[in-house]
From TrEMBL:
Residues 1-65 form the DUF2007 domain. This is DUF2007 domain-containing protein.
Length: 86
């Protein structure tokens, strides 16, 4: 298994798990049970997405596409043109 990505938070990690699963890639989120200890543990590097070596390249491609996604034209709020709000 390879650690292929460090999600910013648990919500992003769960979102990416679902996205990868929808593409037939089995992934595991490490550190999800440590998120409650932030404040006592360092905040960065706790979470990590792990996938099998054979699926790592495809998972990297999908996550790169996720990170480079832009809102569809017309979906932006009028007061924040060009900003993606989540």
């Amino acid at each position: 298994m390879q650690r292929i990505y460090e999600p910013q938070d648990l919500m992003e990690g769960e979102l990416l798990l679902g996205m990868l699963a929808s593409e037939g890639i089995e992934a595991y989120l490490t550190g999800q049970h440590l998120a409650g200890a932030v404040g006592e543990l360092p905040a960065c590097g706790l979470l990590g997405l792990m996938v099998d070596d054979e699926q790592a390249r495809r998972a990297h491609e999908l996550i790169a596409a996720y990170n480079s996604a832009l809102p569809l034209p017309g979906d932006e709020p009028d007061n924040h043109q060009g900003s993606l709000l989540c």
